[in-house]
Amino acid sequence: MSTIDTAKRDSSARAAFNGASDARGQAAGGNAGGDPAARGHSDVVAAAAALIPVLRSRVAQTDALSKLPDATIADLENARLFDLARPKMYGGLQASYETYLDTVIELARGDGSTAWTLALLTTFTWLTSVSYPQHVTDKIFAPGASVRICGSIGPRRARTRRVAGGYVIEDGLWTYNTGFYHAQWDQLGIPLVNDAGELIGRGAALLQASDVTPLDDWDTIGLRGTGSTSVTVKDVFVPDERIASMGRNLQDDYAATHLLDVPAYRTPLVPTLALRLVCPMVGMAKAAVELLTEKIGTRGIAFTTYEKQDEAAVTHLQIGEATAKIDAAESVIRQAIRLLEAGTERGERISVEQRARIWRDAAFASQLIWEAVDRLAGASGTAFVNRTGPMNRIWHDVRVATMHGALYADTLFEIYGRLAAGKAPNTPLLPSLS
To answer: What CATH topology corresponds to 267-420?
Structure first.
């Protein structure tokens, strides 16, 4: 769906859905979203779309808390959106990538912080699902358990010690633990060492959130409600069964052999994570288009004879350029998703070059979205400068999202360019495939 089509979505259809959702909720014993797993793609997306008004009404509270309000967590839980990446064998939705994208877009139209938080929490649900053997995930995804998993794979510092049956994390610091305040588990990157203390690889340790200490240092210009605090760990034992090899993960050698027949849990690590990061930005950009087009018929252009902004050719050009970039970004993402899923479904192993290309495309889409939102902000006039203005908030949210290291365009262009020039990529995240 184009950006303009989304911006002009029929409000009567939304109202009809909300009424139907209420009826389903009563029939389901109070679950306002009903059961998305039984309703399929369109209704999962609709459940997210129905939350847009209430998410917009909570933006000031969300920013003030520097995390999502409890009411928002409850809404996402009731709509079962935290189950998007949870395997069906554990009662999850096991949603396709397209469903994930469309759902996150709708949430981001309501609030960028909510969409980003859900995106990261469900991403670590996916990573946990593929990284550990069944006897471990059977415990994590126990029947009836509400499971939210945050994480940070790259430690700022981490010191570990090999002991009988596992590792002790003696000391560690990890930044940007999005959604930590709402999670029961935290997946943290650690160095793997032998008995002599020598580095032998990199791992991902799954810890109970109660064993992790937040520093409460998330105070940013954008995505304030994501609660992406830094965390520390001191002298915590992690059993071997909850330590995954990142080297194996990067080779698509996932420990979750019980999910080998499910394509959604066989996609390669790096392109999967990169695409999941950029998806919320599409919805943020669509919200910016909606915001601008709602106002252009009610205000003029200062120091001109235009009494209404929508009469000016410059406005038409601004909208045309911005929406073209947003639509292009979305198209790039959807094409990358199709490439990723089609290869996995055919049982093909995606090459290092293809992985780098998808990662590059995620960064390029991020750049296009930033350029579009910056253009729309510039077209918003002096109203944009108000600190609490909605366009100002979207602009800051998108800018902070583009600063994520996994979406930093110059870095990703260089990595792909090195491969195109016949050189090895200068990142450990794209090793040669064995």
So the answer is: Butyryl-CoA Dehydrogenase, subunit A; domain 3 (1.20.140)
